[in-house]
C-alpha cells in the first residue's frame, strides 16, 4: 500500500513500532460507566471514574481523553487507517468504542483495515519482524456498523441486547467471546461474585499473593480478559474494603472468614454499587449472570422476577 497511514491503538504500547501517525486511545473502556453523550458528557464521566480508581488527577485525565477522542476527527485525511486491536476484552471493548465514533464518518469507507490478531498473543509481544509482516485485512463498512451496534448494546442499562448480540455470528472475529466475558463479570446468581472477583478470590485462597504473581495467575486462568496491574489493584481494593470485605485489608490479601464462606458456597456476596459498562450493579441490582443458562437474567433462585 502507498499513501498516508494512521494507526489506532488502545494505549501507547505500540508507539514507534507501527506505521504512520499514531492515534492512542487510553480509555479503559472495559471498566466503569460508559454513559454520556460523545464527546463532553462521555469524557467527563469517564475521567471521573479513571481519576477516582487509578489515582490520577481528574483534570489531566479529562484533558487526555478529550484530546485523544478529538484527534480521531483527523482520520478522514488519511488514505488508510490501521486498527490494532487484539482478541481480549480490553481491546475489543475499545474497538467498538472507536468504531462507534468512526461510523459517523462514511467518508472512511474503504480506508479502514483491521490488523490480524492470532487470538493468543498481544501485538507488543510479537518480535518486530513478525509485527512488520502482518497483512492488514480490509474492514467492510458493515463491520463498522456492527461495531457501533455492539457499542450501543454495551452501553445500555439493559444487558439483554448485548447477550443476544454475543450469541450471533459477528463480522468482528473476537467480539462475541469478549462480550460474553464482559457479561460474566455481572454478579452470578450462584454466589453474587463476578467472574474476575471469583478468580481473584480463588487465587488468594490458593496462596497467590503479590501483584505480579496474581497478574500472571489471572492471565493464565483467563485468556479473554487480559488484566493489567491497575485492574488487579482496583479489584483487590474492592474486595478488601468495607465491613463485609472478602479479602483482608492488609497484604498479603487472604480470604476473610466471610470470603472463605462465599467460596465454599455457604454464603452469598452482596456486591457494592458500581457500573459494569451501562449496567448498574449493587445490593439491589437488577441484572445477574446465570451460569446454568449461560446468559443474563433478572431472576434469582427462589425469587420471582425482580421486575415482573
Walkthrough of the structure:
- By secondary structure, this protein is of the alpha/beta class.
- The protein folds into 2 domains: 153 residues, no CATH class; 114 residues, Arc Repressor Mutant, subunit A.
- 39% of the residues lie in helices and 11% in strands.
- It has 11 helices and 10 strands.
- The strands form 3 sheets. It has a 5-stranded mixed β-sheet with strand order 2-1-4-5-6, with no helix packed on it.
- Strand 9 and strand 10 form a beta hairpin.
- Helix 6 runs antiparallel to helix 7.
- The longest helix has 15 residues.
- It is globular.
- The C terminus is likely disordered.
Provide a quick synopsis of the model.
With 308 residues, this protein is of the alpha/beta class.
User: Rg from C-alpha positions?
Assistant: 20 Å
Shape: globular
| Structural class computed from helices and strand pairing | alpha/beta
Instruction: State the end-to-end CA separation.
Output: 57 Å
Level of helix content? Answer: 25-40%
β-strand number: 10
- Low-confidence region ranges: 304-308
- The total count of helices amounts to 11
Secondary structure layout:
Elements lengths: L4 E5 L11 E4 L7 E2 L6 H15 L3 H14 L8 E5 L4 H14 L9 E3 L13 H5 L4 E2 L2 H15 L4 H7 L8 H9 L11 H11 L5 H11 L7 H11 L17 H7 L10 E4 L1 E3 L6 E3 L4 E3 L11
Parallel strand pairs: 1-2, 1-4, 3-7, 4-5
Antiparallel strand pairs: 5-6, 7-8, 9-10
Helix pairs in contact: 1-2, 3-5, 3-7, 6-7, 8-9
Fill in the keyword field for this structure.
308 residues, alpha/beta, Arc Repressor Mutant, subunit A, 2 domains, three-stranded mixed beta sheet, 39% helix, disordered C terminus
Amino acid at each position: 500500500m502507498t499513501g498516508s497511514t494512521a494507526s489506532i491503538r488502545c494505549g501507547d504500547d505500540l508507539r514507534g513500532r507501527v506505521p504512520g501517525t499514531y492515534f492512542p486511545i487510553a480509555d479503559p473502556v472495559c471498566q466503569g460507566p460508559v454513559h454520556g453523550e460523545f464527546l463532553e458528557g462521555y469524557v467527563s464521566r469517564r475521567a471521573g471514574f479513571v481519576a477516582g480508581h487509578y489515582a490520577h488527577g481528574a483534570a489531566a485525565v479529562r484533558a487526555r481523553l478529550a484530546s485523544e477522542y478529538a484527534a480521531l476527527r483527523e482520520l478522514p485525511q488519511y488514505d488508510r487507517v490501521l486498527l490494532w486491536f487484539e482478541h481480549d476484552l480490553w481491546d475489543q471493548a475499545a474497538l467498538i468504542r472507536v468504531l462507534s465514533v468512526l461510523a459517523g464518518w462514511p467518508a472512511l469507507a474503504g480506508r479502514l483495515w483491521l490488523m490480524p490478531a492470532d487470538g493468543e498473543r498481544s501485538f507488543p509481544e510479537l518480535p518486530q519482524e513478525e509485527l512488520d509482516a502482518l497483512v492488514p485485512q480490509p474492514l467492510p463498512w458493515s463491520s463498522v456498523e456492527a461495531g457501533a451496534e455492539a457499542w450501543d448494546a454495551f452501553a445500555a442499562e439493559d444487558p439483554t441486547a448485548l447477550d443476544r448480540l454475543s450469541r450471533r455470528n459477528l463480522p468482528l472475529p473476537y467480539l462475541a467471546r469478549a462480550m460474553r466475558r464482559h457479561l460474566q463479570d455481572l454478579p452470578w446468581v450462584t454466589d453474587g461474585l463476578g467472574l474476575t472477583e471469583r478468580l481473584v478470590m480463588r487465587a488468594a485462597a490458593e496462596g497467590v499473593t503479590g501483584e505480579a504473581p496474581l497478574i500472571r495467575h489471572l492471565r493464565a486462568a483467563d485468556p479473554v480478559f487480559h488484566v493489567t496491574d491497575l485492574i488487579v489493584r482496583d479489584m483487590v481494593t474492592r474486595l478488601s474494603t468495607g465491613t463485609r470485605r472478602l479479602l483482608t485489608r492488609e497484604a498479603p490479601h487472604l480470604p476473610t472468614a466471610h470470603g472463605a464462606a462465599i467460596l465454599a458456597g455457604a454464603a452469598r456476596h452482596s456486591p457494592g454499587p458500581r457500573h459494569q459498562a451501562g449496567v448498574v450493579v449493587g445490593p439491589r441490582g437488577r441484572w445477574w449472570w446465570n451460569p446454568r443458562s449461560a446468559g443474563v437474567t433478572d431472576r434469582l433462585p427462589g425469587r420471582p422476577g425482580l421486575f415482573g
